[in-house]
Amino acid sequence: MANPKRRHSKMRTSKRRAHDHLSAAANSHCPNCHEMKLPHHACPHCGYYKGRQVVEAKA
Q1: CB of 39 within 8 A of CB of 26?
Q2: Whether the Cβ atoms of residue 27 and residue 38 lie closer than 8 Å to each other
Q3: Paired strand residues for 36
Q4: pTM of the entire structure?
Q5: d(Cα 57, Cα 42) in Å, to the nearest integer?
Q6: How do 28-29 and 52-53 pair as beta strands?
Q7: Each residue's pLDDT tens digit in the chain (59 positions)?
Q8: What is the DSSP letter of 9?
Q9: Do residues 31 and 39 lie in contact, with contact meaning Cβ atoms separated by under 8 Å?
Q10: In this structure, which long-range contacts are made by residues 30-34, counting pairs with CB atoms below 8 Å and at least 24 apart in sequence?
């Protein structure tokens, strides 16, 4: 197998890893209670998903 002849510099490594960061999770508004929730998930505040209650709401 091939082995590197010389070590890559810190700058070259940093340039390659410039796009490896995590992006923030997308949030949307719940149409029932208007709280922030993850898209395509039941609302953790009221328990509604697509206009009907699917889970018990947190007290």
Answers
A1: yes
A2: yes
A3: 29
A4: 0.61
A5: 10
A6: unpaired
A7: 899 999 999 999 999 999 999 999 999 999 999 999 999 999 999 999 999 999 887 66
A8: P
A9: no
A10: none
Locus of tokens 């340039």: 15
pLDDT value of residue 57: 77
Instruction: Enter the tokens of residue 3.
Output: 């082995």
CA 50, CA 32: separation in Å to the nearest integer? 9
Check residue 58 and give its pLDDT.
67
Q: How far apart are CA 8 and CA 25, in angstroms?
A: 33
Instruction: Report the helix count and the strand count for the chain, using DSSP H and E.
Output: 1, 4
Structure tokens that stand for 56 in this block: 């018990």
**Number of other CB atoms surrounding residue 43 within 10 Å:** 23
Query: Could you tell me the residue ranges of all domains in the chain?
Result: 26-59
